[in-house]
Write a structure and sequence with these properties.
alpha+beta, 7-stranded antiparallel sheet, ARFGAP/RecO, GTPase activation, zinc, ArfGAP_dom_sf, cytoplasm
Length: 360
């Protein structure tokens, strides 16, 4: 078996697989995705498979940096570049966009997410029975909105979502489909969830990037002094942490109830069901300088909880008592909350905090 010296550098950087038709090294997970475009990318293990001298010379002449320069010539700034932590759909469509569709060699091929307007049908989860129904969606940068219609021939939209409060994040496990996308927006300063999917993976990722494009262009106008690198993290965001905890009410005398919690930036929301449209409640998580903190455990004499690993969130106005099922969950939640608390508040976040304090 032929083993060239440059294998050593490849193994040092983790990838143990390579596409010998594209000349790039890939990780195990991405090697499986490359096999989905076998007409373009053929993969081998760099440790276990035999290599011909011709294949080795080709790998040596190309490599990841040269391939990136060739296939990523004009990636739009807003286009989401997935990492190994992202869902399979995002990673697969990134690979297909680069090597199969060659979207980043020709701007005309980017029109589905770059045009500033997108219209199409998505399966949307109904609020009541949880059924997914076909709904017409329109994204318009000119109007600054994403809207959907309950009937295909309806003239007025059922819901209008302002681009300035819009977020989108893929949630395949939570929604139960590989193409599941969670879209959120603020309605009366409260978070509203919409869960959608489409059978065509490219369509879903195009919708996702169209939302990012609309957000990017809005922010360029809203924050003219901000650099692109400052704006990109704000286009869409994944949740800091999600999972079940038990909670009690403000008097700390009510029984603890199991709820699904989502930490989205400075909003800690809880739901009866992970796929609920609206949160049962939201808690603003401020900064340490403003007297916010988290403590392990619960105050003495608290009763009515089933799980054993407590968390006390201290705010200027009250304490929120939560309980986790495992000690690991407790540590993870405290670490996630402290990440937010350790970050100084931005000027616009004080306005959000003030709204929470005066919320009925």
């Amino acid at each position: 078996m032929y083993r060239p010296l440059f294998w050593l550098s490849a193994v040092h950087y983790d990838p143990e697989w390579a596409s010998y038709t594209l000349g790039v090294f890939v990780c195990l997970s991405c090697s499986g995705l490359h096999r989905n475009i076998a007409q373009i990318s053929k993969v081998k293990s760099i440790l276990l498979d035999p290599w011909s001298s011709t294949e080795v010379e080709f790998m040596d002449s190309v490599g990841n940096n040269a391939a990136k320069a060739k296939y990523e010539q004009i990636v739009p700034a807003f286009y989401y570049r997935p990492t190994h932590k992202d869902c399979i759909l995002l990673r697969e469509q990134w690979i297909r966009a680069k090597y199969e569709r060659k979207e980043f060699l020709c701007v005309e091929r980017q029109e589905p997410y770059s045009a500033g307007y997108r219209e199409g049908f998505l399966w949307k989860r109904g609020r009541d029975k949880g059924q997914y129904l076909s709904r017409k969606f329109i994204l318009s940068e000119r109007e600054g909105v994403l809207k959907y219609f309950n009937k295909h021939d309806a003239r007025e939209p059922k819901t209008i979502m302002r681009i300035n409060t819009l977020n989108a994040t893929f949630q395949p496990t939570k929604i139960g489909t590989a193409h599941g996308l969670q879209i959120t927006h603020l309605k009366d300063n409260s978070t509203r969830n919409i869960f959608v999917y489409q059978e065509d993976g490219k369509e879903m990722v195009d919708w996702f990037n169209a939302i990012r494009a609309a957000r990017f262009h809005y922010m360029q106008v809203a924050f003219p002094g901000a650099s692109t690198s400052e704006l990109l993290p704000k286009l869409t965001r994944n949740y800091i942490k999600e999972g079940y905890m038990e909670k009690t009410g403000p008097k700390h005398t009510e029984g603890f109830k199991k709820r699904w919690f989502t930490l989205d930036d400075r909003r800690l929301m809880y739901f009866k069901d992970p796929l609920d449209a609206y949160a049962r409640g939201e808690v603003f998580i401020g900064s340490r300088e403003n007297s916010y903190t988290t403590l392990p455990g619960l105050p003495p004499n608290i009763q009515g909880y089933h799980w054993q690993f407590g968390i006390t969130i201290v705010t200027p106005d009250r304490k929120f008592l939560l309980v986790c099922e495992t000690e690991e969950d407790q540590k993870d939640w405290i670490a996630a909350l402290q990440t937010v608390i350790n970050r100084p508040m931005l000027p616009q976040e004080y306005a959000v905090e003030a709204y929470f304090k005066h919320k009925p």
